[in-house]
Write a structure and sequence with these properties.
heterodimer; A: 222 residues; alpha/beta; Methyltransferase, Methionine Synthase (B12-binding Domains), Chain A, domain 1; Rossmann fold; 2 domains; five-stranded parallel beta sheet; 9 helices; 9% strand; B: 231 residues; alpha+beta; NADH Oxidase
């Protein structure tokens, strides 16, 4: 793999955003994800290659470490920020069509629930996996999901709930989506949600951590 | 017992950096260098910007309906469901409470997130939640003292959205406790604004018991909270 991409992947894995960012201390003063993504493009590396050979594998490593509880949310957020700083250089190529996303993913925390940390982590990981993410925020009712589905046909849907009491709203939204869009893939997550509950409400996949969701989406397009 | 209103300084709440680190997940001796300084800064900032308020109101006119696991406060019925019902059913009176860390910390959470400073937004979020919980603890211990003076005990506190009690129960609660003092308003879907706020109920009486929150109270199977707490 290109040496610049190797360094870029390391910056994302360890959350090195740019040259001036002090974290991590052992990379102080070195170029970060921001500079290296720019450098890679200037050196003629294709945006697709940057995505496939640096951003996606680095975020997979981060997701795996989080699943194994080797890192906590703060390290993951730093990696996501580093990834975003690299992604900012690639976004114009998505817009021009030169680089293709793997698909669209609509995500939101269900009605009556305002917990967004878990939802945000999943959104970041999936964006890092090469998908376009449409984030409906928190307290997202069924109508909001249905409107987004109409605007982004064929998107995969993700619903999050952190309260046992808002799982009922998750069920209602899933069933309303199923009624109109039987073929769409629906992922669910959140601390009280389980595989059994996922099956019971007619969703397609439950993952206890963000990387599981990324892996599932990867399978869908492989 | 009388209704009471409180205003706290963040320093009254004895929030520490190590407490926030533990909530994030760091264990004793683990390298938390990434967040230690930031948590300290955010706690310091919170002490300048947070208007921490709490209030409780006492209601003597309460009755319980065992069949539907309901409590009636005056003529308003609360569908509190089995878990909360079991804890409250021996109450002779109840306190409804409201606590808030104020609007500014909630604003800073969303501003940080929108500006891409995800880590700071996350730390604000956790510190905001801890402020609300600590304020609720102080309010609750004041209530307990008042109850003891009259020969009564109190239950733990229970909030809509938890233990099976639907979050929409909050609309009824706000009819009895208007939220004006704390400056808290409800959205249509019963969420509080500012978000770093808490509301709920505490039972008072001679025969009530203070039970800590445990997952054994709940009948959910396979829930991550249960797995996490049982190690």
């Amino acid at each position: 793999m290109n040496e610049i991409l190797e360094r870029l992947a390391l910056c994302i894995e360890f959350g090195k955003i740019n040259k001036t960012s002090p974290y991590p201390p052992n990379m102080k003063g070195q170029d970060g994800a921001d500079e290296l993504a720019k450098l890679a493009l200037n050196e003629g590396v294709k945006p697709d290659e940057i995505l496939e050979n640096a951003l996606i594998p680095a975020m997979e490593i981060v997701g795996g470490k989080y699943s194994r509880k080797e890192i906590y949310v703060p390290q993951m957020l730093m990696s996501a920020k580093a990834m975003n700083s690299a992604l900012a250089h690639i976004k114009p190529f998505f817009q021009s069509g030169e680089t293709k996303r793997k698909g669209k993913f609509i995500i939101g925390t269900v009605a009556g629930d305002l917990h967004d940390i878990g939802k945000n982590l999943v959104a970041m990981m999936i964006e890092g996996g090469g998908w376009e993410v449409i984030d409906l925020g928190v307290d997202a009712g069924t109508d909001k999901f249905l409107k987004a589905i109409n605007e982004h046909p064929g998107a995969v849907i993700g619903l999050s709930a952190l309260l046992t009491t808002t799982m009922e709203n998750m069920k209602n939204t899933v069933s309303a989506i199923r009624e109109k869009h039987a073929d769409l893939k629906i992922l669910v997550g959140g601390a009280p949600v389980t595989t059994d509950y996922c099956k019971k409400i007619g969703a397609d996949f439950y993952s206890p951590d963000p990387q599981g969701a990324v892996n599932y989406l990867k399978q869908l397009v492989s | 017992m009388k209704d009471k209103k409180f205003q706290f300084n963040v320093s009254d709440l004895k929030l520490s950096v190590s407490q926030v680190e533990r909530i994030i997940g760091y264990k004793e001796g683990e390298d938390s260098g990434l967040v230690t300084g930031l948590i300290g800064e955010v706690i310091e900032e919170a002490s300048q910007i947070c208007s921490v308020k709490a209030e409780y109101a006492i209601f003597q006119d309460v009755r319980f309906e065992d069949r539907g696991k309901m409590i009636f406060i005056g003529n308003i019925d609360f569908d509190i469901k089995g878990i909360v019902y079991q804890q409250l059913k021996k109450s002779e009176s109840v306190a409804l409470f409201l606590c808030t860390a104020g609007p500014e910390i909630s604003r800073r959470i969303s501003n940080s997130m929108n500006e891409g400073d995800l880590l700071k937004g996350y730390v604000y979020d956790i510190v905001g939640s801890e402020i609300v919980e600590a304020a609720a603890d102080l309010m609750q211990s004041n209530l307990e003292g008042e109850a003891l003076n009259e020969g009564n005990k109190i239950t733990n506190r229970y909030s809509p959205g938890y233990c099976g009690w639907d979050v929409v129960g909050q609309h009824k609660m706000f009819r009895l406790l208007n939220g004006e003092y704390c400056g808290v308003r409800l959205t249509e879907s019963a969420l509080m604004n500012p978000v770093k706020s808490a509301s709920g109920i505490i039972g008072i009486g001679k025969n009530v018991k203070f039970n800590p929150y445990t997952c054994e109270m709940c009948n959910m199977k396979g829930c991550t909270y249960k797995k996490f707490r049982s190690g």
